[in-house]
Amino acid sequence: MPAEREVLTWESFGAASRALAQEVADSGYRPDLILSIARGGLFVAGSLGYALDVKNLHVMNVEFYTGVDQRLDLPVMLPPVPNAVDLSGARVLVADDVADTGATLKLVRDFCADHVADVRCAVIYEKPRSTVECEYVWRRTDLWIDFPWSAEPPVAADPGP
């Protein structure tokens, strides 16, 4: 586990998400909907939705990380998967907290590509190894990131099946 980390606080997240929204607005891109990648992307999508005045938010659940620097071989879409017809012809902004390897963003972007008018990605952080080059990035880092929503352990463990 890397000793040095990037630490994002709730306060800095507020400034980061606002700056990210400004970057989208300044580019002239006007998304019809924001597609958040759960779970970290939910915070980003909500913030972007308010700042860009986009009320149409969708969620895609993708599992990839299982721990610090531990991940599945490939990201997996979890149900419910958005109906492609709901995305048809839309300008879609995909929101996530980080483009680490890029595998999750690539999965979601590729899912959208055949159905939408345009798809672009917005992230708080992008790492140099990401296979997806996001159109909108607040900061680039190669450090492990402590996000305010996942910095503390859960207050209740998942009881399982």
UniProtKB/TrEMBL annotation:
Q: Does the keyword Ligase apply?
A: no
Q: Where is the Phosphoribosyltransferase domain?
A: 6-151
Q: Which UniProt keywords apply?
A: Glycosyltransferase, Transferase
Q: Per its UniProt record, what InterPro entries does this chain match?
A: PRTase-like, PRTase_dom
Recorded hits in Pfam families, A to Z, give: Pribosyltran
**A single GO molecular function term of this UniProt record:** glycosyltransferase activity
UniProt keyword annotation of Nucleotide-binding present: no
- Using the record, list the residue span of the signal peptide; answer none if the entry has no such feature: none
Q: PANTHER family, per this entry?
A: HYPOXANTHINE PHOSPHORIBOSYLTRANSFERASE (PTHR43363), HYPOXANTHINE-GUANINE PHOSPHORIBOSYLTRANSFERASE (PTHR43363:SF1)
The name this protein carries in UniProt is Phosphoribosyltransferase
Specify the species: Actinomadura graeca
